[in-house]
Design brief:
heterodimer; A: 230 residues; alpha/beta; Rossmann fold; two-stranded antiparallel ribbon; globular; B: 294 residues; TIM Barrel; 8-stranded parallel barrel; 11 helices; 8 strands
Chain lengths: 230, 294
């Protein structure tokens, strides 16, 4: 079970600024169970988008979007609506978003942030992986996760160590940022390569700090004293 | 003594020479310092590597400090491989109080390329983010906006790989690094001035005007050249250079000639040279002579 939650509405709509027509996709697996990508949320996303002026060419909830080979088959019936759309908004975990990015020849926008593995690990039959960072960046990277596709998890472009498209670490492993570059080129969004991504907050990687405890730390005492001194 | 001059010269777009200094694996530092001291008169700054190739060594912070004590300026290299954001910022503050001025912000090689392959790779920040952090420390706050009791006054630089293929993302990354505060760049080793020329033209097309120091690494044999072509990112030694080394009765002379040619050919569009002698420190004076930068 992979928990995900919907991103803030302003963030989702900022991704769609250049698009007029959108296809909305949800996942009937973990995202539905998380309350972030089931029938209800997809319907809600679609109607909110239409209220704010976007044309929703279609929507669908597919069970287990993480299964890339089945995604292709299940989305075949929506080919017309997908073709009509400028992009696809995917309400799912990071794996499902990446899987959709590989089967749909359009930009995918993440509607969700993936937070944790929940009770037990999901099983996905392909190479897309997600670190549950809670700050999904797939919007800027062509639907390929820089944290997992790049062995160093770099957020702002290749390290310069790749050789003939291969990662410096092992032969046969492609440079993740070269894959991102190729993907952005394919969907005509090389402009996104100039996006500067801030350091990760990592808040959702870890347990929320217990503020009571933090306040007992030396740093808090120092800060308090500083305030008193003025 | 020319301490403090490097920043001034780079900003004035004067020609500068840096020379790589790789700290030893261990604590015997005297021999290294003596070697560097001998060629110190030729260089504007010694560029001290941070556990290069992920091999555990004596630290760049301490060695840069010792070199500065000899009266030579340094560029302190700092990679994101081994330190999280707390340690990186702390080391930058340490650099400031030790009198270091110039910092080269690097991502770093992956951990399993060195002699501690099982070490945890950190990469909490990447190089553009590290550059931004340096700017923040310079302005008197840490990266979370907490006020510092005493700011840094560091001069940040970064590295580029002009031989990267595809080149476009490398140029965009250079641009991002400039936007995040990088004031000079040193390049991967260059053997073909056309490669660097193409990169510089790419920068110009993007409206980027920043000092670039061409990376010069003397080839010790034709075998080394072939090895680099096969294994080192973005390095391409042209066939005619390999043949030259193979046919020469004096490899040192031939190798220095190759380097001197690159330096001369790039002089028009580069602001300096970054030498990586890798054990050939003794030939640095001869190379400087041959290339007209002495």
């Amino acid at each position: 079970m992979i928990y995900s939650e919907q991103k803030p509405w302003e963030e989702i709509t900022s991704y769609l600024e250049e698009d007029e027509k959108v296809f909305v996709l949800g996942c009937g697996g973990c995202a539905a169970a998380s309350g972030s990508g089931g029938e209800e949320q997809v319907a809600e996303l679609s109607s909110k988008l239409e209220e704010e002026g976007w044309a929703v060419t279609g929507s669908r909830v597919i069970a287990l979007l993480c299964n890339k080979s089945l995604d292709g088959i299940k989305l075949a019936r929506d080919t017309g609506q997908l073709e009509e759309a400028d992009s696809v908004l995917v309400a799912c975990c990071g794996i499902g978003i990446q899987a959709v990015g590989k089967v749909v020849d359009k930009q995918v926008h993440p509607a969700n942030d993936t937070i944790s593995m929940g009770d037990f690990h999901g099983i996905w039959p392909s190479e897309e992986t997600c670190e549950r960072c809670g700050e999904c960046l797939l919007e800027y990277t062509g639907g390929l996760c820089p944290l997992t596709v790049c062995i160093k998890g770099l957020l702002n472009g290749a390290c310069g160590g790749s050789h003939e498209g291969e990662c410096e670490v092992e032969s046969g492993r492609p440079c993740g940022w070269e894959l991102i570059y190729e993907r952005l080129e394919d969907i005509g969004r090389l402009d996104l390569l100039a996006t500067y991504n801030e350091p990760k907050a990592r808040k959702k990687y870890e347990y929320e700090p217990d503020m009571e405890r933090r306040n007992s730390l030396h740093w808090a005492i120092e800060a308090e004293e500083g305030d008193e001194r003025g | 003594m020319n301490v403090g001059k490097f920043r001034e010269k780079v900003r004035d777009r004067e020609f500068v020479i840096t020379c790589e200094a790789g700290p030893p694996k261990g604590t015997d530092i005297d021999e290294m310092l003596e070697e560097l001291d001998e060629i110190g008169y030729l260089v504007d700054a010694f560029n001290v590597t941070d556990q290069q190739s992920s091999v555990m060594r004596l630290g760049s912070l301490a060695v840069a400090h010792l070199i500065e004590d000899l009266g030579h300026e340094t560029v302190y290299q700092l990679t994101c491989r081994d330190r999280n954001r707390i340690a990186l910022q702390s080391d930058l503050l340490s650099a400031e109080v030790l009198g270091l001025e110039n910092v080269l912000a690097l991502t770093g090689d992956y951990t399993n390329l060195g002699d501690h392959g099982d070490a945890m790779p950190v990469f909490d920040l990447d190089s553009p983010q590290l550059l931004e952090v340096i700017g923040q420390l310079n302005s008197g706050v840490d990266m979370n906006g907490n006020e510092l009791k005493g700011a840094t006054d560091l001069f940040p630089g970064a590295s580029v790989n002009p031989g990267a293929d595809p080149l476009e993302p490398q140029i965009l990354k250079t641009k991002m690094k400039v936007e995040k505060g990088a004031e000079f760049f040193q390049t991967q080793a260059v053997y073909d001035s056309e490669v660097l020329k193409r990169y510089m033209e790419g920068l110009r097309d993007e409206g980027i005007d920043v000092p670039v120091l061409v990376g010069i690494l003397p080839l010790k044999s034709a075998g080394m050249a072939r090895f680099m072509n096969k294994n080192i990112a973005g390095v391409s030694v042209p066939d005619n250079v390999i043949e030259l080394l193979e046919d020469s009765s004096n490899v040192v002379e031939a190798s220095l000639d190759v380097c001197a040619r690159v330096i001369k050919e790039t002089r028009d569009f580069c602001e300096g040279v970054h030498l990586m002698p890798m054990g050939w420190e003794e030939y640095v004076p001869e190379l400087a002579e041959k290339s007209g930068i002495a």
